[in-house]
Design brief:
This protein is mainly α and about 180 residues long. The protein has helices spanning about 1-30, 40-45, 50-55, 70-80, 80-90, 105-110, 115-125, 145-160, 170-184. The protein is built from nine helices and no strands. The radius of gyration is 25 Å and the shape is globular. The N and C termini lie far apart (about 90 Å).
Length: about 180
């Protein structure tokens, strides 16, 4: 009988310690897991909830995609995913990281007429003096007359339209001079 009580006390005390230890260890080691959808796809599709999950999980916000070296912020800027861009900017994404062509988020946001993203990048300290691989500043991407740029926009629509790129030429023509002034 005494032996049975000793065994019971040992089991109870071991279980209590183990449970307490497990809970503490679980709390210490419990980490938010990134979603199954990669951060680049989340940026491309404009899925802010997935981006927020990546941010909470500590995913690399500056990871370059294997194709053109774009970061999620650059991708969001190209495709006009303003909410995603804002979440990345506010969460400390590198505003000046460049893709394989040397373009930063500011270059592509300016070129594609993403005024709100350009504003946010500038407010948060994006460098206007970064040169891309052609030696162009972000302001250079909106300097030429719109008519001269139509074939370039057509090219990008052909390449990235199937991925969801949308361009409103009337809006682009109107907004390019405003972005130019912002970048002076």
């Amino acid at each position: 009988m005494i032996l049975g009580m000793i065994i019971l006390l040992v089991n109870v005390s071991c279980n209590t310690k183990t449970e307490g230890t497990d809970n503490k260890e679980q709390t210490k080691t419990e980490k938010v897991r990134p979603p199954k959808t990669d951060i680049h796809t989340a940026a491309l599709t404009g899925d802010v909830l997935l981006i927020e999950q990546h941010i909470a999980a500590g995913s690399d916000l500056d990871a370059k995609d294997p194709f053109g070296g774009s970061t999620p912020l650059i991708t969001a800027s190209v495709f006009g995913k303003t909410e995603v861009a804002m979440a990345l900017i506010k969460s400390g994404a590198d505003l000046n990281k460049q893709n394989n062509d040397g373009a930063s988020a500011l270059h592509v946001a300016a070129f594609f007429g993403r005024k709100e993203i350009v504003e946010a990048l500038l407010v948060h300290g994006a460098d206007k003096n970064i040169l891309n691989s052609r030696g162009e500043l972000a302001i250079t991407t909106v300097q030429a007359p719109f008519e001269q740029m139509i074939p370039v926009y057509d090219f990008f629509l052909q390449q990235f339209g199937p991925m969801g790129l949308e361009l409103d030429y009337e809006k682009l023509e109107e907004i390019r001079p405003l972005i130019y002034k912002m970048l002076l």
